[in-house]
Amino acid sequence: MPRLGSARSPVKCSAKALVLAAALVSSANAQELRPYQIVGDAIPQSLTGAKGDAARGRAIVVNRQVGLCLLCHSGPFPEDRLQGNLSPDLTGTGARWTEGQLRLRMVDASKLNPATIMPPYYRTRDLTNVAAGFRNKPILDAAQIEDVVAFLTSLK
Amino acid sequence: MIRFFVVALLAFAAVATAQKKSGYEFSSRETQAMQDDDAANPGFLWVQQGETLWNRRDGAAGKSCADCHGEANNSVRGVAARYPVFAPEAGAVIDIEQRINRCRTEHQQAKPLAYESDDLLALTSFVGKQSRAMSIDVAIDARARSTFERGKTLFEQRQGQINLSCSQCHDDNWGKQLAGSPIPQAHPTGYPAYRLEWQTLGSLRRRLRNCLIGMRAEAPPYESADYVALELFLMARAKGLAIDTPSVRR
Question: Which cofactor does it need (chain B) (predicted)?
Fold first, then answer.
């Protein structure tokens, strides 16, 4: 049996086994983050071993309680009038960045810029005074990160 | 050369002062108009109730605020512009709410009013209103220094699951749009304030808790000294701006 959530072994797993593994991981311990490898300024490999779903990713991005993205970013979301301008417009993100670059910027942008205001979406360590309900939980789980990465990659 | 530096420094100071903006300046015209008209400003419901409470005898001592202080527009004028202050009898920096409750327990022999209760908000707004248009000028003496430093640390530390500091929004990004609304500079000029989002009047503590909850940080209980520390730091930072209690904010 491959180690659950290892970023180095998913090629050996069938998609079915991965889905099962992901389900086991999330039911057994939601706090367990999957390991990942940074190469240059990117995380080339999917956190789940599978490609995300762009439509689900879009729904996460526009949801103010889940993705929170439009609090700071604007983008091609005509249905949402109240967008932020603290951070770059998301239009054309997929033309500016590779999938792996976007993944690292989602997972923990502070690895590239320690002063960034971009929240670390997939980090639970080195945080201060986290509210009880959010402690030891990433902002988005691995599958959600992959969905958002798939959506952002599609914004050309 | 020295002259150049002095001129440059003065120019910098002038810009820094000119850029200091009350939350009022980030409000829409409609919200400003609501605040400016005492008959339309909903905060005046609390101010009026506060005036009634000021004159009402309470507690085992059977005294009213007015029995000791007299007319509020003389006796507590300016208080909101210089609070929080170090109170030797408390051995700590206290805010106006705590001062009111110390008066209640010590002089009126009455029960302290609960945070965010209408009565405490009413008295605090009534006292605050007496300083309207006065310039904020909070003293940070040796006894208040550690509380000020605590407030500064809290303001500047990243916290919560979102991992943001107060300063990253209110120093570095004020004026930009957060979810379609301008980020103000976080000067507490007008508390208690009527917030349209709340549909009621609320304290600065409540407002600070809102930001902490947005950062997904653990908001300390209302009694926590951390709120006073933040208020002291923010009021010192707001030096020179005018008190506009009761303000109306989005």
Answer: heme
